[in-house]
């Protein structure tokens, strides 16, 4: 297993700290954006970076209020992230870059590609947030996240009860406890829960909670996708219980230069369940887009 996450650079972006990991000495640049809640770059991308770094210059960050990108003040919503990503690319001196995002990171990357197609050469969006007008249990979810203190209490609970994180991972990952590196995945998620509790952070990111309205999503990128110029690969795990097949099919159909791939035997975090298959698809797509640049 690669040790690229043992070396890093700390940079300042949009007024806050960002932990940056780099791998690969040559090739086109590629930025990786992980998901929300208990995700970190070291966790989500640990089996992705070594393969892609063979012929790409890979940049992976801990998003604000994740991993070692702490502390941050203020509201980190969709408006913040579109500005943050623009400043990040400027800081890294990346005029143009391909982006792979998962969940929250995929939603952020999609919004940025819509705003700045001149800077995004290709987009791979894995189970993105921000797609669709309504979610299951919309009102109840909105009510829960609006309940004062509940999301911070959840962070503290998870930090004190790592067995609950392990149980959740077993039910979420397709292979359960037999997932490669399962103990490391749980260890990293638990460490993230502890960090959130120590910094008095809510378990869900502002980008996620501010997207919710009581009866419909306040953030829905689907209507804007017919204007997407960036070549886009939409990726969904066949067992994903968070992002539906209907929404992903609609996103792919709405994107002029987009297509959908569903990976069997994978859930929401495809890079945990099927890293080898994802790497194959990503490399094939990135190579094809590079040929047409």
UniProtKB/TrEMBL annotation:
* This protein's record includes keyword Nucleotide-binding: no
Which Pfam families does the UniProt entry name for this protein? Abhydrolase_1
What are the entry keywords?
Hydrolase
Recorded hits in InterPro entries, A to Z, give: AB_hydrolase_1, AB_hydrolase_fold, AB_hydrolase_sf, Epox_hydrolase-like
Q: Which GO terms describe its molecular function?
A: hydrolase activity
What highest taxon heads this organism's lineage?
Bacteria
Q: Which residues form the AB hydrolase-1 domain?
A: 28-273
Know the name of this protein?
Alpha/beta hydrolase
From which source organism is this entry? Answer: Nocardia coubleae
